[in-house]
Amino acid sequence: MACLFCKIVAREVPAQIVHENDHVLAFKDIHPAAPTHALVIPKRHIAGIRDATPEDAAMLGELMLAGRHVAEALGVGESGYRLVVNQGGDAGQSVFHMHLHVLGGRPLAWPPG
Ligand code: 5GP
Ligand code: ZN
Questions:
Q1: Ligand 1 mean position to 15 CA, how many Å?
Q2: How big is the CA angle at 37 (ends 60 and 46), to the nearest 5 degrees?
């Protein structure tokens, strides 16, 4: 198994885990782009949103709800935050195990760069 995030799910690579349930895992980003920066991933490997099928609808919903939960747990629920999925080259996706970024703790510019 070569996937970095699958290794985090398997506890073969350490991570600062902030939330977990049967289907998703959330942990702090190793190179935070904001004071609060966590990643929420499905435990089952899927490379990106482009590979999702209608059967993944429940998992995708769980990612969003877990993103909200993590934002609240990390203290940015009131101040605001952004939930982001990067897909492919132009979006700068660098890890090909789908993940939802939870970003907050400072004003976030719009549109993004
Ligand atoms: P992407 O650019 O694919 O949307 O996001 C990948 C994210 O994974 C980046 O923000 C990067 O900092 C983070 N990341 C890469 N390797 C690791 C790691 O080993 N541990 C953790 N916690 N985050 C990582
Ligand atoms: Zn994976």
A1: 11
A2: 30
78 CA distance to ligand 2 middle (Å) = 32
Q: What is the dihedral of CA 60, 103, 68, 80, to 10 degrees?
A: -140
Alpha helices by DSSP H, 10-112 = 57-73, 88-91
CB atoms inside a 10 Å sphere around CB 36: 20
Give yes or no for residue 74 CB within 6 A of ligand 1: no
Mind listing the pLDDT tens digit for each residue in 42-79? Answer: 999 999 999 999 999 999 999 999 999 999 999 999 99
Looking at the CA of 46, name the nearest ligand: 2
Q: Where are the beta strands (DSSP E) in 21-79?
A: 24-28, 36-42
Q: Which ligand is nearest to the CA of 17?
A: 1
User: Can you tell me the distance from the alpha carbon of 92 to that of 10, in angstroms, rounded to the nearest whole number?
Assistant: 25
